[in-house]
Amino acid sequence: MANSVIILSNEKLIALKAHYASDVVKRNAPGVVFAAKTANASITAYRSGKVLFQGGGAEMEAAKWASGDGVSATKKKAVVKGAALPDRLETLSVIGSDETGTGDFFGPVTVCACYVRADQIPLVAELGVKDSKLLTDPYMRSIAPDLKSVVTYSVLTLQNEKYNTVQAKGWSQGKIKALLHNQAIRHVLNKLEDEHPDYILIDQFAERGVYYNYLKDEREIVRENVLFATKAEGLHVAVAAASIIARVAFLDEMDRLSGLAGRTLPKGAGKKVDETAASILLSKGEPFLRSLTKWHFANAKKAAVLASKKRG
Ligand code: MN
Q1: Rounded to the nearest whole angstrom, what is the distance from the C-alpha of residue 175 to the centroid of ligand 1?
Q2: Ligand 1 center–CA 28 separation, angstroms
């Protein structure tokens, strides 16, 4: 089915509503201000000014409105200079990428790259994708299956045995993250084949130059149309979606590791983590604890101190 997304000014939106007044249909989806269905197209207008045309006549119908002050969201290509972001980035076809687990003593680092095509943006938003920092773990788990069925994504889980090995070789977390982001993005690009995202947006953890320096020994490095921005999950739903999928992969692995450890492993790197680590150290030994954790964290030493106190 052909879809078109355009953005209209307020005035054009009023004209559009008047034009389709006899074709109005009721839609209760969030953010929808107007919906209509003609013989050959469904038209959905959102509070943001975005209008989605679906169906066989979508392109033709959209073309009536896309001229003049309307801006075609799917065709727009802006030139990126420095840190500036393209206009209307949130309406373009974007691969977003984000990671989680980097601050947790227990559990893996997970990275997800996720492609959301321009015409999928309203649907992905409707599935409940928002800035994941505002979402709870159970909520993210509940929306992840539908989300994964809609978008093209790659999620990588770096087990701590591997993490500890490369960390001991002197790799920083920045380098580890950069390699995982690059790999996840490559996987998604391979899956897309003929489709070309407008941009790749990485939730920034390092400056562009630093990021590419981490990747300098890689054989395949994704450089084209790559943008970096902090708080990128608020800039495009693709990053928010990537963040959710990465988080759910982290939670799933935490469940698996909790099963192995015979107790719920706490997240983060606080006091509770030290106590749980100490008790695992006493009951299952250091090699096992090491396999569950990012061993260079200060928690490892704190756990050893706690354990030796308990031993008396
Ligand atoms: Mn991030």
Answers
A1: 14
A2: 32
Please choose, from the candidates 188, 192, 190, 199, the residue with its C-alpha nearest in 3D space to the C-alpha of residue 74.
199
Residues 118-158 have pLDDT tens digits of 999 999 998 888 765 668 999 999 999 999 999 999 999 99
Instruction: State which CATH number among 3.30.420.10, 3.90.1150.10, 3.40.190.10, 3.40.50.720 fits the domain covering 89-256.
Output: 3.30.420.10
CA distances from 200 to 98, 111, 165, 306 (A): 11, 14, 30, 45
Q: Give me ligand 1 centre to Cα 1, in Å.
A: 34
Domain 3-72 has CATH 3.30.310.10: yes
Around ion ligand 1, residues with a beta carbon closer than 5 Å are 98, 203
pTM over 0.85: no
Rounded Cα gap, residues 184 and 114, in angstroms: 9
Q: What are the residue ranges spanned by the domains of the chain?
A: 3-72, 89-256, 269-311
